[in-house]
Amino acid sequence: MPYKECFIQDDTCVEKFKQAHILSQAATMKLVQGETKAGKHVVHLGNTNEQGVYKPQSIGWKKASAYHCFCHDHDNDLFVPIENDNELDPKNKEQLFLHVMRSFAYVYYRKKEHMQTQEELIDVFNSIGDSLDQLRDLMAKFIVLPPNKLADEEEMRKRMSMSYWSFKYVKNELLKSLKSNDFDCLEYRSLIIPERLPFASAGVLLANIVDPNPNKIMMVSMNPGDPVVKPPALMFNVLPDKFDRTIIVAAAIKDDHNATHLLRKFDKLDKGNLGRALTRLLFDANQDNTFLHPKFWDYLKENGHSEQIIKELNEDRGFDLMTDPLKLSKLNLFSPEFYCKSVGIV
User: Fold this and answer.
1) CA gap 320, 304 in Å, rounded
2) Average pLDDT of every residue of the chain
3) Residues 6 or more apart whose Cβ sits within 8 Å of residue 80
């Protein structure tokens, strides 16, 4: 069952819930939806088939990017500064914070839901004495992960624990900032493209920065009180708007020096490689909450790009080692050839 739990969780929450749109339906999603034979749709980049293979698919736009992350009142009241006709100011930290927090909440609860499913399957099959091979087969079927990506039970539990620990840390930091009305806990990067892109995206990269079998010296930072280095979280949004712009927002918790180190790697890239690095983030971290205009997906297929996109969607990102360069896509979806006007989207 989907989680219905308000991310805020304080005495101002109400019991009533509705599906909150993480990417705003009015301000964002209506700009990437298009007419199809089945009605107004978007193409979901993170759709998976029964074998767990990513294969983008058209879905109804009103259902896209919707989840029970906030109670009715918080969803209605908290995000007013970034909804409807309010123009996003990339220098307004409150606006940037609200976008980042909302996208993080979605990933946080999707992670909890995924972990619960994994734990339940592990516990059930341990209790009836099934072999690890049977467990892997079942998990590959129901969790839609390819069998070759499933670690043994101990490693699986360790990864789940570390991931949840990292997400919980970021959640606590975001809620502290919200409560104090101080939005400086994050280090932000924002970029305005003066053209509208035919896709929208919101997600979080939880980077693997420590190779379990390192063959070279690693440079990592230990947070006070943490016995191990936890994966840093890099939050990333792509937001086309009605002012014919696209706002790109990336953020990391300032006190997580590994996360800010990762964020600052983007500062060193030239324009072309920056676009390729951001495209790779879409494919590796944000695919579950990335949506394309149907006409754009048709354009990508017609011009031979869809196979490369599907290939990269299904590749393991691997490690973002601290001394290594950023992962790059072979495509740059942020280049002028993919602007709305370039592909014939009004």
Assistant:
1) 29
2) 86
3) 86
